[in-house]
Design the sequence.
């Protein structure tokens, strides 16, 4: 089965969704990301959806789930690059992605992760385990 | 009103849902819908196609390009022979779900389209007809 690649960059994981996702692929990404957060002790996850021309309730739910699960695993999630038409449709559909941090592009998303207490390179924002 | 073109696509798997979305997108572009309207129609189609696969045990989507004088439109007809819907009013309510979803599919799809109709009887399956005019 296809998988969406997850890249590691320092303390962060990067995902760029470039394909029209079917539901199983979305669920596989959710699982893969959680395993990878655990395996790499990642402090943040950036999901770029600038190539997605649609986010329906299933994909929206997956994004919300990833943010909630990552939070429990002590990692921040930022979703970047949502297209305006997708945002308009998502709200009309009834999904507002509350609790998910967003940024206009990858660069700003990375800045957001780096600036968050959990994402500082020296780990100073994080209590010693 | 003239149906200019009609296509029928099977809906039995996740991949069929993706193919249905792509077909709807293509036809919406041909009918001259704006990018926002295309996105709304394709999103509604995705919700309804998933319902057909997940709740209706599979079925089909008919995709019709409409021409009503100067008006252009797109009609989507989703048909399944699944268990049907007991209480349509309740099924349309946001947050109501018999599955593990958010319960936004049916009500959300209705908001994204211009016209929306459901006919269903328990044991006989469900037909959802949705139209968006430009």
Sequence:
């Amino acid at each position: 089965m296809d998988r969406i690649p997850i890249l590691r960059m320092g303390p962060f994981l990067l995902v760029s969704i470039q394909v029209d996702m079917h539901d199983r692929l979305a669920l596989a990404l959710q699982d893969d990301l959680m395993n990878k957060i655990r395996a790499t002790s990642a402090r943040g996850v950036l999901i770029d959806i600038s190539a997605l021309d649609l986010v329906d309730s299933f994909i929206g739910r997956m994004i919300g789930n990833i943010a909630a699960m990552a939070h429990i695993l002590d990692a921040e999630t930022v979703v970047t690059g949502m297209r305006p038409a997708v945002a308009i449709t998502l709200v009309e559909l009834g999904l507002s992605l509350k609790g998910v941090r967003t940024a206009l592009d990858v660069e700003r998303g990375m800045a957001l992760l780096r600036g968050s207490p959990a994402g500082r390179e020296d780990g100073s924002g994080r209590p010693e385990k | 009103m003239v149906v200019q073109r009609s296509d029928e696509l099977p809906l039995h798997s996740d991949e069929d849902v993706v193919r249905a979305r792509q077909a709807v997108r293509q036809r919406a572009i041909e009918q001259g819908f704006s990018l926002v309207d295309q996105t709304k129609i394709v999103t509604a189609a995705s919700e309804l196609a998933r319902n057909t696969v997940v709740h209706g045990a599979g079925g089909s989507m008919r995709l019709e390009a409409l021409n009503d004088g100067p008006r252009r439109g797109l009609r989507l007809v989703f048909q399944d022979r699944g268990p049907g819907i007991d209480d349509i009013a309740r099924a349309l309510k946001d947050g109501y779900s018999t599955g593990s979803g958010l319960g936004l599919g049916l009500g959300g799809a209705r908001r994204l389209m211009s016209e929306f109709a459901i006919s269903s009887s328990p044991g006989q399956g469900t037909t959802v007809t949705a139209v968006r005019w430009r």
In short: Residues 54 and 79 of chain B are 13 Å apart (CA to CA).
